[in-house]
Amino acid sequence: MGKALDGVRILDFTHVQSGPTCTQLLAWFGADVIKVERAGAGDITREQLRDIPDADSLYFTMLNHNKRSVTIDTKNPEGKLVLEALIQKCDVLVENFAPGALDRMGFTWERIQELNPKMIVASVKGFGPGPYEDCKVYENVAQCVGGAASTTGFDEGPPVVTGAQIGDSGTGLHLALGIVTALYQRTMTGRGQKVLAAMQDGVLNLCRVKLRDQQRLERTGVMKEYPQYPNGTFGEAVPRAGNASGGGQPGWILKCKGWEHDPNAYIYFITQAPVWVKICNVIGREEWATDPEYATAAARLPRLKDIFAEIERWTTTKTKFEAMEILNKYDIPCGPILSMKEIAEDDSLRKTGTIVEVDHPVRGKYLTVGNPIKLSDSPTEVTRSPLLGEHTDEVMAELGYSREQIEALRTVGAI
Ligand code: CAO
Known about the structure:
alpha/beta, Rossmann fold, 2 domains, 6-stranded parallel sheet, 17 helices, elongated, binds oxidized coenzyme A, CoA-transferase_III_domain
C-alpha cells in the first residue's frame, strides 16, 4: 500500500525537538526525510539525557524515526555544494536553527529560490517578526510567552509549566500542517513559499480559550466557573484556574481509593449538565436533582467547591478504574489520572500503534509514541531512528556522486 506523502522529499535541517517532531510526522506519512547533521556531532539530543553510554538517547530516537541521516559540514565550501545538490532534489527544507543561522550559512530564501523555485522553506522560530524575533527559545520559554504558564497552576502558587510539550511538539505539529498546505498550494501555483511557525504563536493558539476568558473578565469582572468564584477575587488578568475545566461544563480532579499512597489515584470528573440527575443518583444525593439550589447549572456555579467535595466522598470509596467503569455506564464524562507507567503498559494503546516497541541496533528495544494521526489509506510503520551518517553514502550516490568523489569529500571533512 502506498503512503500519503510518497514521493515528497524533505531536507530535514532540524534539531532538538520542535523541528524533528514535524519531520517525523511527515516521514510517518511516507515522505523521504533526509536529516542533515554535522559530522562527528550530529543533533545535540543524540547525547542529551543518555540512559545507555554511547547509545543515541531516547530523546533523539523518539523524535527521529523513519528518517535517513547524512552528515554534511554546511560551512565547508564543498559541503555547501552537497547541500545545494540536496536543495535542488528536495521539495521542502525544514529548519529550526536560531534566527539568522541559515542566512549566515549562505542559504538565504533568495539563494534557495535560485537553486529551486519550487522549494518550500519551513521554519520554527521562537517568536514571529517583532521585538523578540532574534531570540533563541526553548520549550518552557515558549510556554511562558505564549500565555500557558500564567494560566496554569493554582491561584495561591506561582505560574507553572506543563509537561505536555506544547511549545516544541505543538509547534512542530503546526509546522507540519503548514508544510502540507504549502505542498497542496504548490500543485496549483508551481511555486514554493516560506512557512513560519513561531513557538509563541503555537502556544497561544493552544491557549485560545484563555484569551477568550481575558475578554470575558474585562467585560463582566467575574468568571463563574473559575475556583475564585464566588469567594475569591479576580484581578485584571485571567487567573490560574487549578484543575477547573476550560469549557462550559465544570470539572475538577478528585481523590479516589488509595490516594494516600498512590500519587495518581485520582479521577477527572465533569459535572456535565445533561447528566446531572444521574450524577445525583450515583453519589446518593437524589434530592439535589430537584432542589432549586442544585437543579440548574447556573444555581450550581457558586456551590461547585461543595459539590465536588461531596462527589469526592463517593470517588474515594472506589479506585479510579472502578469509578470510571460505573460513571461510564451513565455517560458521565470522566477520566482516570494515568501515570506514564500505566500508559506504557496499556494494551489498547499498543494495539492501535499509539505506543510502539522499536528495536535499535545499539540500545535494543525501547518504547515510543507512534503516529497519533491515523490515516486509513496510509498506515504508519514506525522504523528506528538512523545512526549518525548512516545514509550518507546512499544519499550521496542518489545525488550522482561516485565512490571516489564521496571518499574525497570525506577526506576534506565536507561530509
Ligand atoms: N554544518 C555546519 N554548521 C552547522 C550544521 C552543519 N551541518 N548544522 C548546524 N550548524 C551550525 C549553524 O549554522 C549555527 O551556526 P552559527 O551560530 O555560526 O550561525 C550553529 O550550528 C548552531 O545553531 P543554533 O544557534 O540553532 O544552535 P544552538 O544550540 O545555539 O541553539 C536553539 C538551539 C534551539 C535554542 C536554537 O536553534 C533556536 O532558538 N531555534 C529556534 C527555536 C526552536 O526551534 N526552539 C526549539 C528548541 S527545542 O526543540
